[in-house]
Amino acid sequence: MADTKFVAGLDGVVACQTKLSMVDGEKGRLVIGGFDVDQLAGKHSFEEACTLLWRGSLPSKEEVPGVQKELASLRALRPETLEIIKTARNAPPIDALRMACSTLSLDVSNPNDISPAGDLAMAKRLAARFPTVVAAHARLRQGHEPIPPKPELTMAENFLYMVFGEKPHPAVAKALDTYWVTVIDHGMNASTFTSRVIASTRSDMVSAVTGGVGALKGPLHGGAPGPVLDMLVDIKTADRAEEWLKKELSSGRRIMGFGHRVYKVRDPRAEVLARAAADMAGADLHNKKLYDLACSVEKTALRVLEEHKPGRNLKTNVEFYTALVLQSVGLSPDQFVSMFACGRVGGWCAHVMEQHAQDRLIRPQSQYVGPMPK
Q1: Which active-site residues does the annotation give?
Q2: Higher pLDDT, 88 or 260
């Protein structure tokens, strides 16, 4: 025990082997199931990306309608889950999702089934129902009744329909779908690690994913896109950006949307979402003035950060353009983390399946630094 090495934050410690995703922070590369993120996001649907992670291959063109139909058939919530959401109508959306998540196995005959078939069936339920939960909560806190899902719509189309009551513009639905695929998995992040630790005890998938939602809530993991919008609103115009940014840095505050624990270059997910935001701006589907301001602020921030923190490699991260895309589809900043969860649930479920197959308890050691008995 005396020779056990302590590594703060487990930096550089390899906790598992996975076939699901690879993050190369030096080259700015994210590989998901054998595809670079820009080969998937915007080109394949969220339902297809889930299938890729759950079975190891994308569905064929002939299989896609069947995949979408099966997931669509699982979207409806049980009355018990709806009661939880109603009770939590005034809670933050991510808290309501965490509470509701723990009820999503109530219609399963054996929720403790962690066989490959049992896990796959539960993964489909969770991925299908997360958007329904978030949409129902959004309606309830606005004083409206939840809108039942429409099985003929895609996952992204149906979510927006359940929130706003009408079928969305195709470009808006595509932007949301692109976002969900972009964030579906990202190496051994805090919420994924949490889910795998729980699964390693042979606990069930719903328990593991509920733990993942709890980990995602923390602002150091999933809770920072909202402040990007606050920053842009506060800056107001491009000519005020440099002064505003320098003032924040001199006060010791972080510039939101820049810098990442892993990436030393621009986050590849930011590249994908920047294109999605540009497409929406070009189609006049959101506030083009805000988009133009964001592009200008990004350029100024990169220059100012390099001047004030040389060598720190504080480049644009996924949060910056996440804020623009989600705001553009009509969502409020306090919904952003729960939307992140609706995408990441596909990856959490895949990791739980992988961990159950490996069947190895995750049990690291600790280094005692307290007093010894006299």
Answers
A1: 260, 319
A2: 88
